[in-house]
Design a protein that fits this description.
With about 280 residues, the chain is of the alpha+beta class. It has helices spanning about 20-25, 55-60, 140-145, 155-165, 170-175, 185-195, 210-235; strands spanning about 35-40, 65-70, 75-80, 85-90, 95-100, 110-115, 120-125, 130-135, 260-265, 270-275.
Length: about 280
């Protein structure tokens, strides 16, 4: 690729968001259609809490990887007709593929070896991630019982408005991070959304007028699409007219106004905004 890569300045300091999860899902795509020859894992690690790891190993072996998908900050891989493997990256988890000569490293807590020699690896140094497994003809509860995806038809402006009413006193920045309604949106996406919508992040959710609610809804979906296209595609660097490239720079400047950006904690999270743009 000719494009430069995103600097990993933020990767180990916060939870991967919608686009990063999509990127890591696709890292295992070379395994689709291939049959599992064996599984190596660390069953005593906390990422497997609640999982029958023996059943996981037996269930995947001999089955082809048929499909993969994401939902917010989660991903799911389907082996055979009824074997579901869920992966939540946590703060430092990542998926990657290696060849048959690869020897698992200390933090490679799941290695799915395919008959072709391809190895699908999940690594998580800090063990904040989570692995799920189920054998079922229908989606397991940990996958089916999730909120409407941001870019689905079920995520409507009315759904957004109703939630803002229920969280009327909370800062809008904090509200956007609530995964029960905004799956996949994390810190940088929330800042980008509010910057594009020209909303101050400390504004109480209940104070947004109808026009602001409509604009917020539009920007939530816009940033989600843009992030998937740019970052989720091949970890490309967003253009400089996004807030993204400026938010962590000391002395960062707003791409819209040329005026200084501000960083401070709002709703318990470090937040970046442009006082001249988001009044």
């Amino acid at each position: 690729m000719g494009n430069s890569r995103i600097k990993p300045i933020y990767h180990h300091t916060r939870m991967p968001e919608l686009a990063e999860v999509e990127y890591y899902r696709k890292q295992w795509s070379p395994g689709i259609g291939q049959i599992v020859a064996g599984v190596e894992l660390h069953p005593d690690k906390r990422i497997y809490r609640g999982v029958d790891t023996d059943a996981l190993v037996r269930g995947l072996k001999g089955r082809p990887l048929k499909k993969s998908m994401t939902h917010g900050k989660r991903m799911c891989f389907i082996f055979g007709d009824r074997h579901w493997l869920g992966v939540h990256l946590g703060m430092t988890g990542k998926n990657f593929v290696r060849g048959e000569d690869y020897q698992p490293a200390k933090h490679d807590h799941l290695v799915v070896a395919m008959e072709s020699g391809t190895k699908l690896v999940f690594s998580d140094p800090r063990l904040f991630g989570r692995i799920h497994y189920a054998e079922s003809r229908t989606p397991p509860e940990w996958w089916s019982d999730l909120p409407a995806e941001i870019l689905s038809d079920a995520f409507t402006v009315e759904r957004l408005q109703n939630f803002l009413k229920r969280r009327a006193r909370a800062a809008i920045k904090a509200v956007l991070l609530m995964q029960e309604v905004f799956p996949g949106i994390g810190n940088w996406m929330a800042d980008e959304i509010l910057w594009r919508a020209r909303l101050h992040p400390a504004t109480p959710a209940g104070q947004l007028c109808k026009r602001q609610q409509d604009e917020l809804y539009r920007r939530i979906r816009e940033v989600s699409r843009d992030a998937l296209e740019v970052i989720g595609s091949d970890w490309n660097t967003p253009p400089d007219d996004w807030l993204f490239n400026h938010r962590w720079r000391d002395g960062g400047i707003c791409p819209k106004t040329g005026r200084p950006l501000v960083r401070e904690k709002i709703g318990g999270r470090t937040t970046c905004w442009s006082p001249a743009w988001q009044k």
